[in-house]
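[worker-b] picked up task from shared queue
[worker-b] task type: protein-ligand structure
[worker-b] ligand name resolved to coenzyme A; SMILES cross-checked against name lookup, match
[worker-b] sequence length check passed
[worker-b] input payload:
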Amino acid sequence: MCENFVQERPGREDCPGDIPCGRCRGLCEDLSITTARPEDIPGIHALEQEVEGGHGADQETLRARLRMFPEGFLVARCRDRIAGYLESMIWQGRPFSRFREIQDFPRLHNPAGDELYLIFLAVDPEFRSRGVAGRLLFCLSDVGRKFSLKRIRLVAKEELILFYKANGFEIVRPLPDFHPCESFRPYLMQKHLPENSGAVSD
Ligand SMILES: CC(C)(COP(=O)(O)OP(=O)(O)OC[C@H]1O[C@@H](n2cnc3c(N)ncnc32)[C@H](O)[C@@H]1OP(=O)(O)O)[C@@H](O)C(=O)NCCC(=O)NCCS
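[worker-b] inference finished, payload out:
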């Protein structure tokens, strides 16, 4: 599990997913990935605002998601700076085509479900291209295994399909009606979490 995970610059054997280890060069040697704490919310909110602008979740929404499933709300820190974060929930996998069908995440969160849904993932622009998001996704797989879940699903912008594929995800189907007013093309993607595959390697 990634609690207080402290990673020195990794070698090939512990490089997350299928990312070539060259991707990990320059990773902060003090990078740690832990579950988020309530006092992290202002910093997470500031990053969410930077990345999402007016579309970003407000602090109360982020707090509600942390209360909903604290084990699935992960933060990457580098020397007390928040380098990135992700939020997730457990649900019983269900078909959907539009964001408004699933946007009330705390209502849909179901600890008895079989699937992790990745709500959002972001990395501070200053920390990008160093494998921080890959490490967060690697740790999310451990969360899924800990809860004996079958898969992780997410909705990806078309431009991030290769990024998610490099992290072990595959396309399930396009979701052309997900955000009818947005210009980007979203895709449902998933990563299977094989049973008994252990808690440390992908
Ligand atoms: C997507 C994101 C989380 C990646 O974080 P990261 O820590 O830089 O990712 P990693 O270092 O693990 O992997 C980087 C690689 O992913 C791919 N990638 C990342 N963002 C990309 C983008 N916008 N378009 C195309 N490829 C991208 C590239 O292959 C990149 O490698 P490169 O920098 O050598 O070109 C980050 O760019 C981000 O926060 N973006 C804004 C928020 C967002 O879109 N979140 C996803 C919601 S579905």
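[worker-b] attaching auto-annotations
[worker-b] The pocket of coenzyme A is lined by residues 51, 120-123, 128-134, 156-157, 159-160, 163 (CB under 6 Å).
[worker-b] releasing lock
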